[in-house]
C-alpha cells in the first residue's frame, strides 16, 4: 500500500502510477464539456434578438427578479446590448404612455426583467411586442 505522510492512500504501486493519467483524462473531459455546453449556450443566445438599453440618462437599468416592484440592484448600463427571450404584458407601467411590457433578458451571465420602455425595441401595438417573441409562461 502507498502511504503519504503516514496515511494510507489505499493504492497499490500500479494504481498510483496510473493516477496522473486518470487525473489528466478527467481534466480533459471537464474542459471538453465546458466548451461543448458553453458553445451550446452561445448558439442558443444567437437565436434571440438583442436590443440596447436607452433613455435612462446614463443611469442604466435595475436588476429585477420579477416585472413589478422595486429594483433589486444594478442590472445593465445605458447602451448595453441585452438578449431578449420572452415578454410579460402586465408588469408595472413605465413611462408617460404607461407601457406595461417587460422583457425577460440576459446580460453577461445574469438573467432578469427590464421594462420595454428602457429598450430600443419597436413600439408595442395594443400592449403586445412586434418582434416575434412569445409571452413568458
Q: Could you characterize the architecture of this molecule?
A:
The structure is a single chain. The protein has a 4-stranded antiparallel sheet with strand order 3-6-7-8, with no helix packed on it. A two-stranded antiparallel ribbon has the order 1-2. It has a two-stranded antiparallel ribbon with strand order 4-5. Helices cover 25% and strands 23% of the residues. It is elongated and about 75 Å long. About 10% of the residues have low confidence. It is built from 1 helix and 8 strands, in the order E-E-H-E-E-E-E-E-E. The longest helix has 34 residues. With 137 residues, the protein is of the alpha+beta class. The protein has 2 domains: 44 residues; 69 residues.
Core attributes:
single chain; about 140 residues; alpha+beta; 2 domains; 4-stranded antiparallel beta sheet; two-stranded antiparallel ribbon; about 25% helix
- How is the largest sheet built, in terms of strand order? 3-6-7-8
Strand tally, please? 8
* Structural class category: alpha+beta
Number of helices: 1
Kindly report the average pLDDT value: 79
Query: Which percent range describes the beta-strand content?
Result: 15-25%
Sequence of secondary-structure elements: EEHEEEEEE
Report the biggest beta sheet as strand number plus sense, adding barrel if it closes.
Answer: 4 strands, antiparallel
Radius of gyration: 24 Å
Low-confidence stretches: 30-43
Q: What is the overall silhouette?
A: elongated
Terminal Cα span: 58 Å
Spell out the blueprint of helices and strands.
Layout: E1 3-4, E2 7-8, H1 13-46, E3 50-52, E4 61-62, E5 74-76, E6 81-88, E7 102-107, E8 110-115
Antiparallel strand pairs: 1-2, 3-6, 4-5, 6-7, 7-8
